[in-house]
């Protein structure tokens, strides 16, 4: 999974309740492997960090 905050459709509105912001601050992009994703999911399930709130919008094309 690649988390790219620049492509998140709710960036700004949801950053304060997103696990990425809670753990690292808003990065440009973040890549998590399956083990890391499961660990973050487990932390969120236990209420230790907020859930990932990434909502990807349509793919943007450069001009």
Properties at a glance:
single chain, mainly alpha, two-stranded antiparallel ribbon, globular
Model description:
- The protein has 63 residues and is mostly helical.
- It has 2 helices and 2 strands, in the order E-H-E-H.
- It has helices spanning 19-24, 34-45; strands spanning 2-3, 30-31.
- Strands 1-2 form a two-stranded antiparallel sheet.
Largest sheet: 2 strands, antiparallel
With strands numbered from the N-terminus, the spatial order across the biggest sheet is 1-2
Strand content: 5-15%
Indicate the low-confidence ranges by residue numbers.
none
Total strands: 2
Q: What series of H and E elements makes up the topology?
A: EHEH
Would you summarize the structure shown here?
This protein is mainly α. The protein has a domain at 2-45.
Give the SSE layout.
Layout: E1 2-3, H1 19-24, E2 30-31, H2 34-45
Antiparallel strand pairs: 1-2
